[in-house]
Design a protein that fits this description.
The chain is of the alpha/beta class. It has one domain: Class I glutamine amidotransferase (GATase) domain (Rossmann fold, 3-Layer(aba) Sandwich). Helices cover about 20% and strands about 20% of the residues. The strands form 3 sheets. Strands 1-3-2-4-5-12-11-10 form an 8-stranded mixed sheet, with helices on one face. The protein has a two-stranded antiparallel ribbon with strand order 6-9. The chain has a two-stranded antiparallel ribbon with strand order 7-8. Strand 11 and strand 12 form a beta hairpin. The longest helix is centred in the C-terminal third of the chain and has 14 residues. The relative contact order is 0.18.
């Protein structure tokens, strides 16, 4: 099923950029990995952006592969690893074709992870600059304190914020880091580095050895062909999208990979409790929390 929203000069194709949001299948309990509900919320928040057309495709892939042929940017918010939507069937080939013609790519939360063995890690790093790697990266639930941000369009209008999420870190980045920019950086506590991690529970000696050091939880990349990529490791808890700054930096990133100018104060949006609770995978259980 696809949900479309357009704004501005939607009738003038040459002035309209198409952003495709691919929402993964339901996989976790109430309020967790709410890919569909989150993606529909993003679409709602981006309504009114001139020159941007947004489509949400659920169940882990686009409704028709031809959709990708005209996509200017593609976001995947889904489970990753061996079940990653980008790695099923001919999906990697289709995404590579989109990237080759300059389409932006963004992976969110679990979708930043691809299998450790095989070439997919290098493919992801080419697309977005980094990837979660099992037993090198970690996924503890912890409160990250984001105190400052770089001068970058994605960070426009974002104020310091502190929020608990399953923030992945120790991401495996490309060895050649030219063109890669950290966007969300914080220092995990010693207790966070000691674990337990969500899976495998750890601790890992190389993670403990970096106590007191900063880690990157969101980053972006400009590819040699001019295409843009973003990795965002948060997004485990659906409730966090109610936080204005948490939400804003992700919405800004979606504009940036679409090559739409990010407003000087970032994407302005507001969400209601009703909108937050709409479209979730387990509505009856969610209401009991």
């Amino acid at each position: 099923m696809a949900f479309a929203a357009s704004a501005g000069f939607a009738g003038e194709a040459k002035e309209t950029r198409k952003l495709i949001l691919i929402a993964g299948k339901a996989s976790h309990g109430p309020g967790l990995h709410e890919f569909n509900a989150g993606s529909i919320l993003f679409k709602k928040c981006l309504e009114g952006i001139e020159g941007l057309e947004v489509e949400v495709h659920n169940n882990g892939w686009v409704s028709d592969d031809k959709v990708l042929e005209t996509a200017d940017a593609i976001v995947i918010y889904a489970d990753g690893g061996g079940g990653h939507p980008a790695l099923q069937g001919n999906h990697q080939e289709l995404l590579q074709k989109a990237a080759d013609r300059g389409a932006g790519l963004m992976m969110m939360h679990y979708a930043t992870e691809c299998p450790k063995d095989g070439p997919s890690g290098d493919v992801f790093r080419d697309w977005i600059g980094g990837a979660y790697e099992n037993s090198f990266s970690v996924n503890p639930i912890w409160e990250a304190d984001y105190k400052s941000f770089p001068v970058h369009p994605i960070a426009r209008g974002v104020e310091p914020f502190k929020i608990s999420d399953e923030w992945y870190f120790s991401i495996r980045f490309q060895k050649e880091v030219a063109g890669i920019q950290s966007l969300l950086v914080a220092t995990p506590s010693d207790e966070t580095r000691d674990g337990p991690y969500v899976n495998p529970k750890g601790p890992y000696s190389h993670i403990q050895a970096r106590k007191g050091e900063e880690e990157t939880m969101m980053w972006c990349k400009v590819r040699e062909d001019g295409g843009r990529g973003v990795g965002f490791t948060g997004g485990h808890f659906h409730k966090n999208w109610a936080d204005d700054d948490f939400r804003k930096i992700v919405l800004n990133a979606m504009l940036w990979i679409s090559k739409i100018e990010v407003p000087e104060t970032g994407v302005a949006s507001a969400v209601t409790q009703e909108q937050m609770e709409a479209n979730i995978d387990y509505p009856k259980k969610q209401k009991k929390q």
